[in-house]
Description:
- The protein is mostly helical and about 45 residues long.
- The protein has one helix at about 5-35.
- The termini are far apart.
Amino acid sequence: MARKPNYSFERQERERADAKKAAEKAAAKAEKRAAARGETPSEEPQD
């Protein structure tokens, strides 16, 4: 017997994966941009 599909959950999982991939891509892009400027990217905001 096949399971009942849970479309909303599956969609949320796809969106979460896409958001994670986009965040990783943005972080890599920011790191590359900072390296081109000769800066070091900081994870923590400075006071």
